[in-house]
C-alpha cells in the first residue's frame, strides 16, 4: 500500500509541522537523507516515509527504520517543507534533556541561544557548536523550537549529536554553579575574543551566550555574565551575523581548550 495525502498516518504526521502538535506528541519531522541517517543512528526514528524511488535509492536507511511506509510524490510533498524534497521524511522522538542532566556531565563548552526566533540561525548555531566540540546547546527563554523544520534542516544532523536543552532565561546561575564561566557576546563588550584567547582565559570551561540579531542579548543576561565579549571588526563591516559570530567564539574556545 502506498500512502496518499489523505491517508490518516500522513494527515497525522503533517500536524507535526505545527509547534503545538510537536510539543503535545513529543515528536517531530526530519527531512532528507542526511537528517534521516543521523536520526536513525541516534535511535530517534519511529517511522520512515519515502517515495518508492527514494526507498530504493536509500535502501540502507530504509533497512534501519523500525517502520517504513511508501508514499506517493504528492504525500511526500505534503510532509516536506522544502521546494525540492529528496524523498524521505522521518517521524522522530524529541530528545531534549533537562538542564540538570546536561550540566551533570561537566561540559567544557556550551552554547546558549537566548530568545533567538530565527530557526535558520538557531540550526546553524547548533551545527557550529557541534563542529566546535560543544556538549550542549541551550535554548533559553522564548526561543525558537529546536524541532522546527527549518532548524532541524539547518542543523544538518547536529541536533542528534549534542544535548539539546530548553530552559528559562534564569539559566546563568545554574551554569556558573556548575563551574562554567559565562561569556555574553556584545558588540560593546569590554573584552574581545582575540585578547581572551591570547590571555588563556578561554581554556576554562565556558558557556557562550548569543542573542538575536535584531535585539541582541537581554540586558539582565549581559549584566549577569562573567564577561562581556565582542568579536573585533578589523575591516569596514558594521558587524557579523549571529552564525558567524558564534563560529568565531566557539572555535576560539575549542582552540584554547585543546
From TrEMBL:
Domain RNA 2-O ribose methyltransferase substrate binding: 29-98
CDD domains recorded: SpoU-like_rRNA-MTase
Keywords, in A-Z order: Methyltransferase, Transferase
A single GO BP: methylation
Keyword Zinc-finger listed: no
Classification via SUPFAM superfamilies: alpha/beta knot, L30e-like
GO MF term list: methyltransferase activity
Family (UniProt): Belongs to the class IV-like SAM-binding methyltransferase superfamily. RNA methyltransferase TrmH family.
UniProt protein name: RNA methyltransferase
